[in-house]
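Extended Data, record Trypsin-like peptidase domain-containing protein
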Amino acid sequence: MTDGWNARSAPYSGGQPPATGHPMPPGSPGAPESPWWSDAMHDPWRDPYAPTAVVVQQPAIASGPQPEVVPNPDAPRRSYTPILLICLITALLAGGLGGTLGYVFAVRGGVATGGGSALGATAEDPPAAANRAPESLAGIAAKVLPSVVTVRVTGAIGSGFVVSDDGYVITNDHVVEGADDTMSVAFSDGSTARAELVGRDPQSDVAVIKVAKSGLTPVAIGNSDAIAVGDPVLAFGSPLALRNTVTYGIVSAVDRTIEAGDAGTTRYYAAIQTDAAVNQGNSGGPLVNAAGEVIGVNSVIRSVGGNETEAGNIGLAFAIPINQARRVAGDIIDHGKARRTVIGAEVVTGGTSTSGARLRSVEPAGPAAAAGMKSGDVVTKIDGHVLEDGTDLIALVRKYDPGATVSVEYRRGTKTQTASVTLVADSN
């Protein structure tokens, strides 16, 4: 069916127009001078009210009898086997190609197998812990953990760290208090070993034990005098009996004077304060700087708990500076007892109305007397560190090695004076 514009017919040779009932195309010989058919007024597509009919074209049938076609029985029959083989091979190839493409798209698209749905992008394989950068927190933890031990003493648990390859371990005095032949340590790899007490110093809260195991890896020792507020630190140990625990924080303060004690023993030291999470069981474990070096021994926490069993971390933990702990431990190993650094004077402790450390008495042949100080003087600074009371003076003096010379500022009456004092070890 056409719209009339593209109609085609055989050329008209003249005479009467064909009696087909169809209009002659314009321009044909004998055609009327009109752009439409001659019977355009009766065109059903023009006149919607004109009668129409659908004519079905029938194939032409020749008249007369048709010859019968008889198949030749001797003609070779066509085989369908090659066609079937081609179809089968094509189907196999198509199936294999489709499966391969589907797997590739599924893997790249993050489609989960096993009936689940994948959420998010496909992640790369995570690197092994051993491949962490040595300077990263994970790298530091991996380096230090083999040297950290859990100390078991008569049902109690504390921590410690190896300082020599032949088995010496530093810990807190209050960790090994009451130790007997059953004391043992556990390492980060799960192995255990028997341990014996070498010596302890209750006033500094430092003790040394020796582990019956060879081939140990000692920690790297840092310089606690080189740290600053804000330095990152890691605390290692077994808080609440959770072995191989590592927590992270910063140095919150330095030279925080601590007076602590129990059972009649008073301990003084100028502590490193940190906000790293430290709880019961961390005692004796190392506080480590960003280089993986030990800069302190975790010892005391401050808590809002009413008693020791209720004490928990509130972001205030204190460590003995490693310079002091190493000196005390060395004295214990070499001499069986620790030396304490003194200034040669007795100070007033407790609540006083005077800011500073008032000297109650001065030893005649002691360092303070040699520097010209007298009873009644009030020490206000030591090496630039402001003193609030006598506890500050005791704790800060013990931070130094015997033989160290420190600058002291003191007040006598209304006058302020300075002196250089060479500290010594006590005679006990």
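Summary. The longest strand covers residues 245-262.
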